[in-house]
Amino acid sequence: MREIKLPLSVPKNKKTAYRRHYGQLTNDSGRLFLIAGDQKIEHLNADFYGPGISAEDNRPEHLFQVAAAIQGAVFAAHLGLISRYGDNYRQITYLVKINGRTNLGDNETKKAAKTLWSVEDVVRFKKESGLKIVGIGYTLYLGGPDEAKMISQAARAVFEAHQNGLVAVLWVYPRGKNVKEEDIQTIAGGAGVAASLDADFVKVKYPYAAKDKKAAAIRFKTVVEAAGRTGVICVGGAKRSVKDLLADTDRQMKISGAKGLAMGRNLHQRSLADAGRLTRALSAIIFGAKSAREAELIYNQKTAAKPKRTGRFLGLF
Predict the structure, then answer these.
(1) Does the structural domain 12-299 have CATH classification 3.20.20.70?
(2) Catalytic-labelled residue, pool 203, 205, 259, 290
(3) Is 104 exposed, middle or buried (0-12, 13-18, 19+ CB in 10 A)?
(4) Is 173 among the catalytic positions?
(5) CA within 20 to 30 Å of 156's CA: 108, 196, 254, 291, which one?
């Protein structure tokens, strides 16, 4: 495993646990490939059913099957969903999202997400379930009326996670009137907030709509620099072609200096077979430093690895 600089908020008696969890989170690489299952709450069903979406995606278990097919990836989901399916997918590495909100309502209601579970709940659930839970995730919206409250909750969650030897990942999204969400300086400001809150990684938006892709990747270095020792991972964004996905990821890693990728719709909206091929290609860039062209060749290999299962029956109680 790569040498890591431990936050001073990790107690001496939890350093071994933190190192283990950080290694599991990053596939012992210092880089993170995050599968976003929290979208079952955040996006409701519009992203799981409809034209251009695999019929498999309307079943929650499809998310677990996709995550199970990816070597080295981490599945981020809310505790309740993990509780329902985790016993059948014990090989998956989990990150528990502790807050959330749906996309219903007006813009004002979309600037806050309530805390659903405490870090203490996650620690207890980890112990009792025996699942490979390595940390917590929290979404922080900047610019709304609840900003101060959310910053306070995020700070406390990160500190308590470290106190228990867990890692902490923040989703940081500036929202509000006249806020340009894909402006580099705005994104960099959010990354700086995550660093100030002691997050291990921060998930931020990326300017995918930019016409000059290379120039955008160069400008994004500002975000990585602003995050300091907090690793930056980019959102996957709306569903795009495989070629564009691989090229964007390659630029983010090689030019911008990002530490990984968070992927939701671009994976779970595909069939399990197609998602498996795509994740192998993305993993080759994230963990293997392959080029976009090399990754595309990997994607075009038709044989996909089947996800392993524990063989346990889903718990009925």
Answers:
(1) yes
(2) 203
(3) exposed
(4) yes
(5) 108
